[in-house]
Write a structure and sequence with these properties.
Layout (H helix, E strand, L loop, with lengths): L5 E5 L5 E2 L15 E5 L1 H4 L4 H11 L5 H4 L28 E3 L1 H6 L4 E6 L9 H17 L6 E5 L3 H13 L3 E6 L5 H9 L3 E5 L3 H11 L5 E3 L5 H7 L2 H8 L7 E5 L4 H15 L8 E7 L4 H7 L26 H10 L3 E5 L1 H12 L7 H16 L7 E6 L7 H8 L21 H15 L2
Parallel strand pairs: 5-13, 6-7, 6-9, 7-8, 10-11, 10-13, 11-12
Antiparallel strand pairs: 1-2, 1-3, 4-5
Helix pairs in contact: 5-6, 5-9, 6-7, 9-11, 11-13, 14-15
The chain binds pyridoxal-5'-phosphate.
Length: 445
């Protein structure tokens, strides 16, 4: 065993399993698993030594060092051979300084973590590099894995297919027919996945993929596979590193299947255990009101999760009614002084496009988180002097239909408060100058 090591552990028990075993739930009580790192081993380096090592790797051009995930490999998959890593230099995404937007919202400090500035345009790349690297390593060691499969609302499938294509591993994706954007759908098609559009919603696809992967020769890539969480959790140390190892007061993340809020908390757990940080941020999950089972459970004091039939939402990647990672997400909210809030379609649309006016280019899910910020500020639940980080989960370019419809004011029952219409004018200097004079004055900030 190398100095640094990790294994799967039951979140509600003490049974453990090696990371190269094909296993997603505890066979003892069917609980979810998590990856447990050897914290004693991690503590063999001081916080200052870790910070120095991470800073040094930032200067390196070695493939593993250029990735936000693999530059922290001891915290992620400590035992993988470097040549088995399948990376596209994911992570190290910009921490956008939202000072101008913060001023508009009358708050002190806002950053937007642009996780969608990544190879496939969403933060799903962070977890997928870990999962596909582990599968790659298992196949090389002779495990009989023939393909990797996932159910997806669009972004997971794009990430899975890209990383599998790079590694030469067959991939299978199940999508709810007609419920993804064109940009999302074309990605796995282009990367050569076996693409199945099923006549159901995400939760229906999730049931099918669990049946398909019951035979261990097809490996399950959904976030109930906790290898994904290990990649996603690096958002937390990365934000702290970008803030010179300071911790924001509050982090807001949009939630659907709830793997990512769990990951965020786990990242901070690790940072605290390693002494990299000394305080906890508050973690807030934002849901679309159309698909809000986590919000409903929160309002009932987390008595239990009652699955709902997710209604149509512009935030299609979080149109999920039966979130698999509920127990982990509940724990994250409880341990990080958190809360759950939901926003309407109009709130998410306007929040996304208000932020665009300050140089961002927001997907609808980022709109959900920004809408939650606006709402919590107006309620006083987030105070004006808090330092807030909003997690932007996908690139706006993946959601062109949403953005075009917003500006054309063709979104049903939504007032597009920040619509920016195109001016039609004859090719004559007089009418052109009339428009420019009026508009330039109005737009000065
Ligand atoms: C997956 C995804 C989410 C939600 O993450 P969960 O882990 O399912 O809660 C949010 N936004 C986008 C763009 C996503 O792809």
């Amino acid at each position: 065993m190398s100095l640094f090591n990790a294994h799967f552990k039951n979140i509600n028990g003490s049974d453990t399993y090696p990371l190269d075993q094909v296993i997603y739930r505890s066979p003892i009580d069917n609980s979810l698993l998590e990856v447990e790192q050897d914290r004693k081993a991690l503590a063999s380096k001081s916080p200052e030594e870790w910070k120095k090592l991470f800073a040094e790797r930032r200067q390196s051009f070695k493939p593993a060092d250029t990735s936000g995930i693999w530059s922290k490999r001891e915290m992620v998959l400590p035992e993988i051979a470097e040549e088995d890593i399948v990376t596209m230099q994911e992570g190290f995404t910009p921490l956008f300084d939202g000072s101008a937007l913060a001023q508009e919202l009358q708050m002190k400090k806002l950053w937007v973590k642009l996780c969608g500035n990544s190879h496939t345009g969403s933060f799903k790349d962070l977890g997928m590099t870990v999962l596909v690297s582990q599968v790659n390593s298992m196949i090389k060691k002779g495990k009989p894995i023939k393909a990797v499969a996932c159910a997806s609302t669009g972004d997971t499938s794009a990430a899975l297919s890209a990383y599998c294509a790079k590694a030469g591993i067959p991939s299978i994706v199940f999508l709810p027919a007609g419920k993804t954007s064109t940009a999302q759908l074309i990605q796995p098609i282009s990367n050569g996945s076996i693409v199945l559009a099923l006549d159901t919603d995400f939760d229906g696809c999730m049931e099918i993929v669990q049946q398909v992967t019951a035979d261990n020769s097809i490996y399950l890539a959904n976030s109930m596979n906790s290898l994904r969480v290990e990649g996603q959790k690096t958002i937390s140390p990365e934000i702290c590193q970008q803030m010179n190892w300071q911790v924001p007061d509050t982090i807001i993340i949009p939630g659907g299947n709830l793997g990512n809020v769990s990951a965020l908390a786990k990242g901070f757990d690790d940072c605290l255990a390693m002494g990299l940080i000394s305080k906890k941020p508050r973690i807030i999950v934002a849901q679309a009101a159309a698909a809000n089972p986590f919000y409903q459970a929160y309002q009932r004091g987390f008595d239990q999760l009652v699955p709902v039939k997710a209604q149509k939402t512009l935030a299609s990647a979080i149109q999920i009614g039966n979130p698999v990672s509920y127990p982990k997400a509940k724990r994250a909210i409880e341990e990080y002084n958190g809360l759950v809030i939901d926003v309407t379609e109009e709130e998410l649309s306007n929040a996304a496009h208000r932020a665009d006016r300050f140089g961002l280019y927001c997907c609808p899910h980022t709109g959900v988180a920004l809408g939650a910020l606006e709402k919590l500020l107006s309620q006083g639940t987030i105070t004006k002097d808090e330092e807030v980080v909003v997690i932007s989960t996908a690139h706006g370019l993946k959601f062109t239909e949403f953005k075009v419809a917003y500006h054309e004011k063709s979104l049903e029952k939504i007032s597009s408060d920040f619509a920016n219409p195109i001016f039609k004018a004859p090719a004559k200097i007089g009418p052109v100058m009339d428009i420019l004079k009026k508009e330039m004055a109005e737009r000065r900030r």
